[in-house]
């Protein structure tokens, strides 16, 4: 039966992306002078796994690059060649080329063949370099090789090839085909079928049996495999201990081949297999072993985002239904319906727990974002001639997947600015008494119901005088007595830049306004702290998720609206003497010696209120982006957690509204966009949204 290989493409591309990301992370963390052998082995296994999968799908261009990469890595991890910065640079470029080739096969994007040829030549040249006089201590065997007494040592032919006999257990034909394709990359392979229908390969290859084991173990359990030198007797092979594999030498655990030291899958990164068909048959890496060699099952599964979104929507509907039930039974007599009310309370608790559990599925660690910056900082610093130490904290802090994807671009811009404008050149830092290497820190932490992400550098800090001068030049309303916090916010003005030189990194004044606009659209805020000569910190505060929110229900006429609780400071009923009319500006209300603009909600949406006199209604004090206002409503309904529905996709975009929710009585309630209301408060009287 012919297998449709295309059904496994997505599995291969997803795992290849994870392996390339892990490879880059390990390469950037390598200590070139004393590389960790486990890290080198992990990088080698990543290249090897990608090569195996690419060969299975006949992606020969990827196979060619990964084979050369794998060969060079193998020499380094075995101590035959010392690791150098040139190697690391070449490996990083190879990763970029492999990513480009993956995109070409996956999305049909163009592939720069010159870049592919260049990296292949670079890897080939490095492979032909001078062999290190002494193997690196981290990769050297702990004892000299000892021949196994039960089998003859392999003998190479005139071409330097060894001949191996590889007996397979009874396995599906797809596993046989996958192994044949993979082993065929190592040399010349032939195949025969025994009387009991088992398959035997004969392989002529310059590779060692370690590499053969490494390949086979991705598809088969080593316990079920038998590899012998083609000239060795069956009896001798059967007499071997351990896996039944012909072993000419013993090696220390630190230098075991990839087959014997595949690390346990890390959180968020499942174990990988060499080929997707075999992965499908063998449960995608279920034979991965830990450092002690004991088998363990994979602790994660791959699920499409659309399935998670569907599950969240269903749980949202369940929450709404539970609220409806709670509202219906609210009028019942507790004495006559005690058991029903107790059951409803238990249902409410279980529903809340289920909602939190399902929402946690969408949560992803910030490492998903942070992991892309070490390479970017390294490349930017090299281009600008700077030395930058990049540090991350709180990478395990979780944020909703939808927000994580949207925060990447703003953070990228902030990090680039810190490297380009924040951190000084090494000679300037030395002259200032600083370490010539600047420090750039990216951190994340939970604070209440929000996550705070900070980009900090120990550079020269912001120049108050230059910012004010530039603001005056652009005609912005500023004064010399402005507090520092307000001065720093000026850099978010469109087109604002104090850079003296425009580079291909930054300096055109494009982007910082977009950064703030994007963060505000996510319900977040941006704060800047800076000390001249000591550095700058930009703090971004975001809600953990946009799928649910804690809100305050307010009523105007017969309509109920939801105010996100994070914007609400307090609510009160003003006295008539505190409400003033300002010509051309509308009404203001005095709250604790501070006059706040009064926003009548009924006038915004042109609805009939119960009260037009502020002293008869309720005002809710709101704050967004450092600005306060008083929202006039008829009454407060209460506080509740609501499931957010996208209004634009279900109806159309409405000014002043960020979403909608379904109330317990089945009615639809609109969620107010507080930031938009405060920004446009001066136009509300003259230009209502609904007229």
Descriptive report:
- The chain has 21 helices and 22 strands.
- The N and C termini lie far apart (68 Å).
- The C terminus is likely disordered.
- A hairpin with a 2-residue loop joins strand 12 and strand 13.
- Helix content is 38%, strand content 21%.
Q: Strand tally, please?
A: 22
- Count of discrete domains: 5
Helical fraction equals: 25-40%
Strand content: 15-25%
Name the poorly predicted regions: 130-153, 232-298, 504-510, 684-691
Tell me the major beta sheet: 6 strands, mixed
Q: How are the elements arranged and paired?
A:
Blueprint: H1 9-29, H2 37-56, H3 60-77, H4 85-107, H5 113-127, E1 162-167, H6 173-183, E2 188-193, E3 199-205, H7 209-216, E4 226-229, H8 234-238, H9 276-282, H10 305-329, H11 338-361, E5 363-365, H12 367-370, H13 373-384, E6 387-393, E7 398-400, H14 401-422, H15 426-431, E8 437-447, E9 450-457, H16 464-473, H17 484-489, H18 512-521, E10 525-531, E11 535-543, E12 548-556, E13 559-564, E14 568-572, E15 579-582, E16 586-591, E17 594-600, H19 601-604, E18 618-624, E19 627-633, E20 635-643, H20 647-650, E21 657-662, E22 668-672, H21 674-679
Parallel strand pairs: 6-8, 13-22, 17-19
Antiparallel strand pairs: 1-3, 1-4, 2-3, 5-7, 8-9, 9-11, 10-11, 12-13, 12-20, 14-18, 15-16, 16-17, 18-19, 21-22
Helix pairs in contact: 1-2, 1-4, 2-3, 3-4, 3-5, 4-5, 10-11, 13-14, 14-18
């Amino acid at each position: 039966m012919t297998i449709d290989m295309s059904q496994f493409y997505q599995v291969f591309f997803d795992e290849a992306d994870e392996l390339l990301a892990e490879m880059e992370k390990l390469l950037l963390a390598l200590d070139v002078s004393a590389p960790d052998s486990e890290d080198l082995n992990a990088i080698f296994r990543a290249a090897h796994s990608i090569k195996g999968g690419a060969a299975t799908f006949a992606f020969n261009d990827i196979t060619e690059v990964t084979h050369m990469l794998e060969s060079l890595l193998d020499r380094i991890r075995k101590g035959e060649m010392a690791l150098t910065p040139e190697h690391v640079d070449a490996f990083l470029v190879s990763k970029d080329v492999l990513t480009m080739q993956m995109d070409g096969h996956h999305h049909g994007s163009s592939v720069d063949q010159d870049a592919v040829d260049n990296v292949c030549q670079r890897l080939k040249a490095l492979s032909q370099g001078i062999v290190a006089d002494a193997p690196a201590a981290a990769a050297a065997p702990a004892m000299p090789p000892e021949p196994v007494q039960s089998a003859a040592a392999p003998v190479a032919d005139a071409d330097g090839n060894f001949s191996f006999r590889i007996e397979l257990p009874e396995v599906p034909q797809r596993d046989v085909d996958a192994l044949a394709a993979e082993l065929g990359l190592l040399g010349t392979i032939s195949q025969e079928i025994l009387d009991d229908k088992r398959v035997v390969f004969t392989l002529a290859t310059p590779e060692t049996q370690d590499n053969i084991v490494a390949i086979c173990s991705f598809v088969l359990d080593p316990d079920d495999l038998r590899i012998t030198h083609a000239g060795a007797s069956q009896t001798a092979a059967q007499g071997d201990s351990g896996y039944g594999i012909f072993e000419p030498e013993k090696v220390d655990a630190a230098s075991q081949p990839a087959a014997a030291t595949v690390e346990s899958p890390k959180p968020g990164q499942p174990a990988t297999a060499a080929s997707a068909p075999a992965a499908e048959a063998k449960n995608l890496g279920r034979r991965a072993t830990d450092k002690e060699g004991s088998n363990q099952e994979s602790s994660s599964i791959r699920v499409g985002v659309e399935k998670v979104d569907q599950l969240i929507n269903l749980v949202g509907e369940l929450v709404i239904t539970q609220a409806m039930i709670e509202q219906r039974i609210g009028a019942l007599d507790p004495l006559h319906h005690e058991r029903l009310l107790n059951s409803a309370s238990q249902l409410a608790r279980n529903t809340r727990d289920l909602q939190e559990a399902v929402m946690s599925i969408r949560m992803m660690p910030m490492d998903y974002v942070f992991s892309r910056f070490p390479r970017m900082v390294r490349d930017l610093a090299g281009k600008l001639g700077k030395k930058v130490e990049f540090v991350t904290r709180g990478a395990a802090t979780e944020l909703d997947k939808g927000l994580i994807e949207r925060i990447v671009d703003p953070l990228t811009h902030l990090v680039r600015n810190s490297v380009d404008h924040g951190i000084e050149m090494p000679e300037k830092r030395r002259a200032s008494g600083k370490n010539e290497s600047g420090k750039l820190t990216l951190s994340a932490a939970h604070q209440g119901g929000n996550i705070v992400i900070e980009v900090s550098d120990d550079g020269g800090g912001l120049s108050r005088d230059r910012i004010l001068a530039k603001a005056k030049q652009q005609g912005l309303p500023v004064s010399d007595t402005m507090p520092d916090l307000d001065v720093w916010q000026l850099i978010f003005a469109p087109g604002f830049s104090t850079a003296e030189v425009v580079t291909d990194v930054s300096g055109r004044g494009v982007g910082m306004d977009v950064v703030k606009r994007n963060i505000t659209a996510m319900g977040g805020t941006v704060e800047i702290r800076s000390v001249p000569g000591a550095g700058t910190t930009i703090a971004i505060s975001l809600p953990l998720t946009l799928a649910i929110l804690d809100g305050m229900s307010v009523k105007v006429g017969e309509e109920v609206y939801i105010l996100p609780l994070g914007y609400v400071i307090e609510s009160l009923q003003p006295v008539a003497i505190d409400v003033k009319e300002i010509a051309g500006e509308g009404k203001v209300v005095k709250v604790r010696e501070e006059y706040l603009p009064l926003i009548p909600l009924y006038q915004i949406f042109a609805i009939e209120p119960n009260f037009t006199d502020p002293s008869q209604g309720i005002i809710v004090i709101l704050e967004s982006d450092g600005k306060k206002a008083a929202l006039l409503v008829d009454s407060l309904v209460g506080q509740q957690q609501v499931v957010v529905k996208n209004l634009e996709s279900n109806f159309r975009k409405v000014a002043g509204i960020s979403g909608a929710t379904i109330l317990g009585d089945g009615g639809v309630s609109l969620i107010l966009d507080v930031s938009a209301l405060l920004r446009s408060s001066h136009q509300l009287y003259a230009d209502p949204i609904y007229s």
